[in-house]
């Protein structure tokens, strides 16, 4: 069985163990689901660069009923160049964005994230894509689902400003995209958004 299938199985086992611990009140049933969680960690240990203890600790941080997490990214063009920010964490470039905050809409989140990470003020004009991160080919692999929302935004003000998360802010032409932070943004995603730029009638991409 290939690595992708093992990782898919581990993700499903993780969701089952998390739901079981959340709903079951019986101490023995909870212990069974905790054992299932440990099995999941051992599977991931064989197919990632992390050890089982580290993986188990990561799994336990995600508690309650298992649901996907949401990530929002802003797609901003200026003179046919796309806005990217350089991540302090890994030194790669990415579309500005991040986790959605509770109490804000996805569009509100992306406006805030773009301003915090780049210094630019924007207005959301269209939802370009909603993709399951695990099916896009991002690295590293996460043992839970993340839905990535990409919004086309229009510049309304501001100026390039770095943050504690970003060390550079710049616009890049399609044929001059710098090394990307592959945990956040992929080359094929950038290519797809340029296709949206050239054809504004394209529908939203999903899955």
Helix and strand sequence: HHHEEEEHEEEHE
CATH topology of the largest domain: Nucleoside Triphosphate Pyrophosphohydrolase
Which percent band covers the strand fraction?
A: 25-35%
Give Rg in angstroms: 19 Å
Please state the structural category: alpha+beta
Number of strands: 8
Q: For the residues shown, what is the average pLDDT?
A: 89
Low-pLDDT stretches are: none
- CATH top level of the largest domain is Alpha Beta
Domain module tally:
2
| N-C termini distance | 24 Å
CATH architecture of the largest domain: Alpha-Beta Complex
Which features characterize this protein?
2 domains; 28% strand; 207 residues; alpha+beta; eight-stranded mixed sheet; Nucleoside Triphosphate Pyrophosphohydrolase
Please provide a brief summary of the model.
The protein has helices at residues 3-23, 27-47, 52-61, 106-118, 187-198, and strands at residues 69-78, 81-87, 93-94, 97-99, 120-132, 146-158, 166-172, 205-206.
How would you describe this protein?
- Strands 1, 2, 3, 4, 5, 6, 7 and 8 form an 8-stranded mixed beta sheet that branches.
- The protein is 37% helix and 28% strand.
- Helix 1 runs antiparallel to helix 2 and helix 2 (27-47) crosses helix 3 (52-61).
- It has helices at residues 3-23, 27-47, 52-61, 106-118, 187-198; strands at 69-78, 81-87, 93-94, 97-99, 120-132, 146-158, 166-172, 205-206.
- It is α+β, with helices and mostly antiparallel strands.
- It has 2 domains: 3-61; 69-206, Nucleoside Triphosphate Pyrophosphohydrolase (Alpha-Beta Complex).
